[in-house]
Amino acid sequence: MRLAAINPLAGDEGLAAGMTLADARAMVPELQIYNSDPAADEDFLDRLADGCTRYTPNVAVYPPDIIIMDIGGSAHLSGGERKLSRSVKEYLGRRQITVRIGLASTTDAARALAEFSSGHHNSEMCAIEALPVAALRLDAEGDLGLRRAGLQTIGEVASRPRSAIAARFGTRAVFALEKLIGAAESPLNPRRHEIPWVFERRFPEPIASKVYALKVLHGLLEEAKIRLIEEDRGGRHFEASFHRVDGRVQYVQVETGLPSRDTKAITRLFDERLDTLADPLDPGFGFDSVGLRILRTDPLKPHQSQLEKEAREEDNSAEFLDRLAVRLGRNRLLTFRSRDTHIPEKSQVASAAIHDTTQHNWTAATQAEPPVRPLQLFDPPHPITVIAEIPDGPPKRFRWHGKSRDVTRFEGPERIASEWWLGGDDPLGAGQWTRDYFRIEDTSGRRYWVFRYGLYGRETSDPQWYLHGLFA
Amino acid sequence: MRDSIQSLSAIRERIAGDWQSGKAAAWDMALSGHAALDSYLDGGLRRGQLHEIFASSADDNGSAAGFAAMLALCATQPRKRTLWLRTLDAPRQGGRFNSAGLAELGGDPAAFLMAVAPDDTVLLRSAADALRCTGFGSVIIECWGSPAILDLTASRRLTLAAGQAGVTAFMLRLGAREQPSTADTRWSVQSAPSTPLEANAPGHPVLDVTLLRQRSGPAGKSWRMEWNRDQRRFQDPARNAANGNDHSAAPLSGAVVSIPAGKPVTHSWGFKRRA
């Protein structure tokens, strides 16, 4: 076992990360150790990055310990780069986190400066040129090779012809160098894409009242409404974020079926959502800002209201469906779409009503025929024991729920073959069996939908029977 | 312009007056189509009311659900939607909802919504909210067993909510015993032998329904009714039997092609009946 990380106190005792535990114990017998948990570290870094969205929406995370913020265009909001770095240091320093900040115009340079830079330099280029060659992040051999060649700093490497470097250390070294000095692109991969519909309120003092936070959210919605009206749009998907002083952020999302800018209705949706949260909104030591983002907007033209009563009535049901979807969960309020397949239990697709507002066409039933599909299907089908006159004939008597039933009428078989063309590795569909469906009626007048699984003699010698549904 | 606005508002006032005085009561009745039943109910099933449907035994759950769907089809006005509310464990007991089956009963799955509530409390709360919503024609509440929360207060709440927007509520009580409620009507449903089609095939759904209770009238009568899918209404099974015996109306039987093994017989849901 080795030390993964140490605190400053251990550093003072002469320990270093990467040392074996036995050596470290020998040097400092009273050493306290904890198992390293990279997943938890990553979570923590994520949480810090969430908190850093207060400086800029473009934040990228490079585990284990790097957060990159794109402050282009947002530094002036904090009063310039210098003030912003001080603010970041303070913000993270409050949590006993050691922060090294690198400011540069490319991500690679910023990372390298944060990691290797020492002392003060006049310009960014000077600082980069003064970096040791280790900042190129080559493997140990390449690193050693560069130093053996007498090249100690990036500046010295950069002054050599690229072809010579490529010949000796590979194109990777050239590429790393170009990225470092800004000659090649090194794009940032932000955690969230920038979204223009962002509203935020920061508080001079943390607020510990949930009620007040919700009032602020309502205010933000009103603010958003003005912009939505200006652009003739309505929101479909809203996200509120409650930033706590300890860096934790809680997100609450609601969706609406129709584009909406009715702030009261949306506030009600948020209330409903907050009531059903498994992890309730907890102010802890207080929120220091509340944010609102609209993740999806749709065109919404202003409409004349109240002339026709019916228009208002429609809205009433849309709003109810939104509330119901929030209360039950969006996947528990369903509409149905037909699917092109013969397999009965696969012939429909249930989709969230809030997501899928289009109307679907269904094949109308054949005129004057009795229903050939039941209203509800057992899932899975109930196995039944059947007595039939011949193995591939209709059922004569069957037993279900512990009761024997005599069949008086039947219709069938309606043969539904397996979808062998979907089984990729089995082109003949040998492993999938055909179902023979029968509509049957027993002596007491109950109608059942049963099927025999497998063709007798060809697919199986002992086909099983199942009850798939009850007809009205 | 001003004149037309005035006459428009006059008409509107008159209509509103009619609504309040109950003159438009005929609009508020959903006809089942079965003449004897409709006249017994004094004009049909009342819209904007709560109706309870019980299965007469566990084997009739499918029929009771079907009856609820059929009544909802009768009661739902055109261009309005139907909401079916059930709990999470309902599919395990009664089966998964099959929209092809709804189409087979004459309903339009596109105008149909299914909501699944985690428990009975949320079920009833959502039902009361849904009934206040004018976008729905009818709401079917599938409730298994006799939960303690479904008491007289809860059913009163549903009745009030239904009356507010004129949405008809059908409470489907499966595996339940009768208990006091404010429902307008209470039904017990049992399947009955159908009128056979050619080749002794089971025919259209036939149900024995009993009116167990009616709030504003007599009760205790039973009817045997057949569901006519094409006209979306009930009818006497006897009349259909006469049609069935009328051989001139039946299509001529022709040569029937034997079924190729390993191939589906049907292309649509209608398929050739083997005589």
Detailed description of the structure:
The complex is a heterodimer of chains A (472) and B (275). Helix content of chain A is 30%, strand content 26%. Chain A is elongated, with a radius of gyration of 34 Å. In chain A, helix 9 packs across helix 10 (171-180) and helix 12 packs parallel to helix 13 (309-328). Chain A has helices at 8-12, 21-27, 38-51, 81-93, 107-116, 124-129, 140-148, 154-159, 162-169, 171-180, 210-230, 263-276, 309-328; strands at residues 59-62, 66-69, 198-207, 233-244, 249-260, 287-299, 333-338, 348-352, 376-388, 395-400, 403-416, 435-442, 447-453, 464-470. With 472 residues, chain A is an alpha+beta fold. With 275 residues, chain B is of the alpha/beta class. Chain B has one domain: Rossmann fold, CATH 3.40.50. Helix content of chain B is 32%, strand content 24%. Chain B contains eight helices and twelve strands. Chain B has helices spanning 2-21, 35-40, 61-75, 90-94, 99-104, 120-131, 152-165, 237-245, and strands at 29-30, 45-46, 50-55, 81-87, 96-97, 112-117, 136-144, 168-174, 185-191, 206-214, 222-228, 233-235. In chain B, the strands form two sheets. Chain B has a nine-stranded mixed β-sheet with strand order 6-4-7-8-3-9-10-11-12, with helices on both faces. Chain B has a two-stranded antiparallel ribbon with strand order 1-2. In chain B, helix 6 packs parallel to helix 7. The longest helix of chain B has 20 residues, at 2-21. The termini of chain B are far apart. The model of chain B is unreliable at 21-26, 240-252 and 263-272 (pLDDT under 50). Classes of the chains: A alpha+beta (472), B alpha/beta (275). At the A-B interface, helix 13, strand 7, strand 9, strand 11 and strand 12 of A face helix 3, strand 5, helix 5, strand 6 and helix 6 of B. Strand 9 of chain A pairs antiparallel with strand 5 (96-97) of chain B.
